[in-house]
Each structure stands twice: as C-alpha cells, then as structure tokens.
Amino acid sequence: MLFLKSTSVSKAPGIYEVDIAAKPPGKTFGIFLATDPDHPPAALLGQLKALGFENTYSSPYLHKDAGKVLDLHFQKDGTDIFKGWKTDECTHNLAAITALFEEHGITIAPRVMSMAEAYA
Predict the structure, then answer these.
(1) Long-range Cβ contacts of 58-66 (<8 Å, 24+ apart)
(2) Distance in angstroms between the alpha carbons of the first and the last residue of the chain
(3) For 40-67, how does the pLDDT look when each residue is reduced to its tens digit (9 = 90+)?
C-alpha cells in the first residue's frame, strides 16, 4: 500500500499515487498504483496491459480521510532467471513506463526498495 496524505489530491485523473520500484538488486521493476475505484484510470490500465504488465494484486481500502482507494500492483515477466529482467529489458521497459506515465502527466522516479521493505 502506498502512503497517501490525502485522497483529495491526485497525480492524474483516477490516480492518487504511483511508485515504480524494484527489489534488490534492482533490475526488475514493479508498478504500484493507488487509484480511485469510482473513477479508475482505464486508459492507463489498458496501456499497461498492452505493454505486457499483468495485475498481480488488487485491494480496496478506505483512506483515513474517508476516500476510497484501490491499491494495484503490476509486474512484467522477463527472460532472466526467475522471470527477472535482463539489462536490455530493464532499459526498454523503464523507457516504456516513463513514456506512458509522461503521456498522462506523471513524472516517475524508479527506485530500488530497501531489503526490509522488499521482504516485509
């Protein structure tokens, strides 16, 4: 679940927060979205699917300010060991993710999770 200060402020229509993160060593990134379940970002979700990202987790919850949130996680398999991304796949996929979110007015900052966060 992403940390949200408020559900009255969004990054784009239907999107409260975005996190692009990888477990260490940091070559295979997942997309984590906090969305508005009443007004989902259908175009962006369709574009993620077209890029090969599959929805692996979906959980609704009520934010402390009483706004409804749908927590979504997406992953894309690669061709490296354990379905991870090889270096060229990482470069290609991050470029595609960056372009997709920029199209929707969202600047992303991919990051590598801490060990504690990744395996909590």
Answers:
(1) 59/1, 61/1, 63/4, 63/6, 63/7, 65/6, 65/7, 65/8, 66/7
(2) 12
(3) 999 999 999 999 999 999 999 999 999 9
**Is the pTM for the entire model greater than 0.90?**
yes
pLDDT in tens, 100-110: 999 999 999 99
Query: Taking a C-beta distance cutoff of 8 angstroms, is the pair 60, 2 a contact?
Result: no
